[in-house]
Amino acid sequence: MTRYFEDIRIGEQASLGDHRFTAEEIVSFAERFDPQPFHLDEQAAAESHFGGLVASGWHTAAVWMRLMVSHWQRQIEAEAYAPGERRPRLGVSPGIRALKWQTPVRVGDTISYSTRVTGKEELTSRPQWGLVISRNEGVNQDGREVLTFLSQVFVERRTVAGQQP
Amino acid sequence: MTRYFEDIRIGEQASLGDHRFTAEEIVSFAERFDPQPFHLDEQAAAESHFGGLVASGWHTAAVWMRLMVSHWQRQIEAEAYAPGERRPRLGVSPGIRALKWQTPVRVGDTISYSTRVTGKEELTSRPQWGLVISRNEGVNQDGREVLTFLSQVFVERRTVAGQQP
What we know:
2 copies of one chain form a homodimer. The first copy, chain A, is α+β, with helices and mostly antiparallel strands. The first copy, chain A, is built from 4 helices and 5 strands; from the N terminus they run E-H-H-H-H-E-E-E-E. Strand 2 (95-100) of chain A pairs antiparallel with strand 2 of chain B.
């Protein structure tokens, strides 16, 4: 995503890495942002419809963001730029679509996150940017999807639409 | 939302409260989950396309969750139940739709969050639950939307579909 819009191909995918959810961090996130009994307390969670402590869905999404930023940082480090060459800018995200939590994330689960480019849109309203749409997923150690969503991000174009390079 | 599915009316809305985003908590969230320069560092943010430090979009959504849980807790406290009467259970959320970040949230911004029920769906696959769909928004002190999305949550039915009460 640190490449220019023109360099990104529909269908390309990347593994973003694994994350193991501990009880400590599940509770820590929940105390700040999602203090429901089944995210906070083993005993109360055992009596809930989840039958045990589970991570907040927002926590599982926030971990994706963390791994995605690390992925971008690795891409930047791996790319060679000529001295003085400007790097493409990564723009604003206009939002997320179809965020689904299919399976609860339980204490000790290891979630593997990945991303795949599913679409590119040229924007007449913003000729210097293109919109890249990706399908993101988290899968647990049993191969079950726990999280999927479509992300969108504006990526700078090498050539401004309508102008000669 | 602590009421039964049958008690919830399409169109009902609630203010969830205000939240002021400080530089300290914007940076604290970003260090854990979204370590991009414009969320982490005043100087780097000033040089970015945002022109100053802004909150991670995931942070603005997580604060909504925090306020929503407080809203449910207030509802529980306000409701009178007879001794032994069972309270309706709040179920799993199958996910979020159309999450949009329209305007950056900057240091010192106060965001007012609210929620409005926009739909109810009876489920043949889960006769003891109904799906409640709500439009949620965060608006800044200038009246500009910073965050909108549709949330979904399963809410227990008083009467299981297909059975007599």
